[in-house]
Design brief:
This protein is of the alpha+beta class. The chain contains 11 helices and 13 strands. Strand 1 and strand 2 form a beta hairpin. The chain starts with a helix and ends in a 27-residue tail after the last helix. Keywords: Chromosome, Coiled coil, Methyltransferase, Nucleus, S-adenosyl-L-methionine, Transferase.
Length: 458
């Protein structure tokens, strides 16, 4: 399996041989009477989520810190769930913290992930199998992957994803969050609650897609990080379109089944060998079907699973993987900003002149000023927090400090609000025109006799 995994990397990403001086060598000494001595919890490499390299670890063959390399997986089995397509269950008792399986697939750069996600979406594939790996790469388990691709989402998961450095490269593993008993369904939190719903704009694949208005919008990682009700209220009231959800989720199940059967596993388990547990109801309750909203949110997004939860993310905000493709790349941030700046703008002063009433003109100009102010505040805030964002890029971590993310949300919301107010004011004055002093509803001197109504489409 490892070989295939590596070869799949070669398709898009050269496997770079680690330089000798970059290899992390721990200081453990194997002691037969202390089993944990050979790279257990206190091993320096384990503490930094880095696997020891065979031939370099002082504990030699006793080293216990090569789980990805040696594919030390727990026993698992694919089964048919009710309403969630295929799922994966524990085929033995699993201990809390235990490495269960690596999330294998084709390692592809973000541009390729973007292209594929669009293709899968166009093909009607509703299941999401693409997850972010690091700043620039994604793992696509749609066509080739390990059994980890069958693990479903749960908001009360018994597993979690963790990133490890193995031979100098980042890899993603599924780990038990708690003791898991035999026959329990495995599940982790896809962490997408902000992905497909209110933050559908984080589906930022389309460079030319002007539907989405927010750049570098930090996402919340866990319940502890929930934004204040005030912010949420502002976000949803300002951009109601972004939470509009459509489509019926149930249609996805056929595609799910087809895709499960078409899968080309990297794993050596033939698909026919998959145990199909049709008669059984949900084995453990760890995974519930998505709520209606979540299902719709899922369907609305392209097939990309949201970000991998990093160990350190507990008190931090998390960028979603979908948005990661752009957000995480240092080159992308300025590019996106210039795109944002180059977005079709309109001249509010010119629009204001089209109104007959002085009050209407003043109101539009006032809101235009407020919009400019909010935009420039957001721009200067960007410069202020840029080091933190870039640090995040370098680390390839999923998190930026909460304080930075909060500031960003606040400023972004203010900008949204200012834009909304401006647009609202124009629409209101077009729909309910105030009369000018001369009793006219349109300005006699309107340049070129433009129709103000056309600005409604701006
Ligand atoms: C990584 S796949 C998981 C395996 C998938 N169930 C299958 O049959 O191949 C992710 C997809 O499974 C479905 N899924 C995952 N968790 C779910 C849940 N709790 N309820 C409903 N569908 C779920 C969604 O379609 C999602 O895009």
């Amino acid at each position: 399996m490892q070989l295939i995994f590596v070869s799949s990397r070669v398709m898009f990403k050269e496997h770079t041989k680690q330089k000798e001086e970059d290899i992390a060598v721990c200081e453990c000494k194997y002691n037969a009477s202390v089993p944990d001595s050979a790279c257990g919890e206190r091993c320096l490499n384990v503490l930094t989520s880095t696997e020891c390299l065979p031939g370099y670890c002082p504990c030699g063959d006793y080293c216990k810190n090569q789980r990805f390399q040696k594919c030390e997986y727990a026993k698992t089995k694919v089964f048919k769930t009710e309403g969630r397509g295929w799922g994966l269950l524990a085929d033995e008792d699993i201990k809390a913290g235990q490495f269960i399986i690596e999330y294998c697939g084709e390692v592809i750069p973000s541009e390729e992930a973007k292209r594929r996600s669009q293709t899968y979406e166009a093909q009607g594939l509703m299941d999401a199998y693409i997850i972010s790996l690091d700043a620039n790469y994604f793992v696509d388990a749609t066509k080739k992957g390990s059994l980890a691709r069958f693990i479903n989402h749960s908001c009360q998961p018994n597993c979690e994803t963790r990133k490890w450095t193995v031979m100098g490269e980042t890899r993603v593993g599924i780990f038990a969050k708690q003791d898991i008993s035999f026959a329990s369904e495995l599940a982790y939190d896809y962490n997408f609650e902000w992905y497909g719903g209110a933050n559908e704009h984080n589906h930022v694949w389309e460079d030319g897609d002007e539907r989405y208005t927010v750049d570098e919008f930090p996402l919340y990682d866990s319940a502890e990080d929930e934004p204040s009700a005030r912010l949420l209220e502002r976000m949803t009231s300002i951009n109601p379109e972004s939470i509009a959800m459509t489509d019926d989720y149930s249609e996805g199940s056929n595609n799910r089944l087809a895709s499960a059967l078409n899968v080309e596993p990297l794993y050596s388990v033939p698909v026919e060998a998959i145990a199909v547990n049709t008669g059984k109801s949900e084995p453990c309750g760890a995974t519930k079907s998505f709520s209606e909203d979540t299902q719709k949110a899922f369907q609305q997004t392209n097939p990309i699973i949201s970000g991998i939860q990093s160990d350190s993310a507990a008190q931090s905000f998390n960028f979603s993987s979908a948005s990661d493709s752009k957000k995480r790349s240092a080159q992308h941030i300025p590019k996106r900003r210039s795109k944002q700046n180059g977005r079709k703008q309109f001249d509010a002063k010119h629009v204001a002149k089209l109104f007959a009433s002085k009050e209407a003109q003043e109101e539009v100009i006032k809101y235009e000023e407020l919009r400019k102010e909010a935009t420039s505040k957001l721009d200067s805030l960007y410069d202020e927090i840029r080091p933190a964002i870039e640090e995040h890029e370098r680390d390839s971590q999923d998190s930026v400090p909460t304080s930075v993310a909060e500031k960003w949300i606040e400023a972004t919301c203010s900008k949204w609000k200012a834009e909304f107010d401006l647009h609202f004011s124009i629409v209101k004055n077009v729909v309910c025109p105030r009369q000018s002093a001369t009793g006219e509803t349109n300005p006699p001197e309107a340049e070129g006799k433009e129709d103000p109504v056309k600005y409604l489409t701006i």
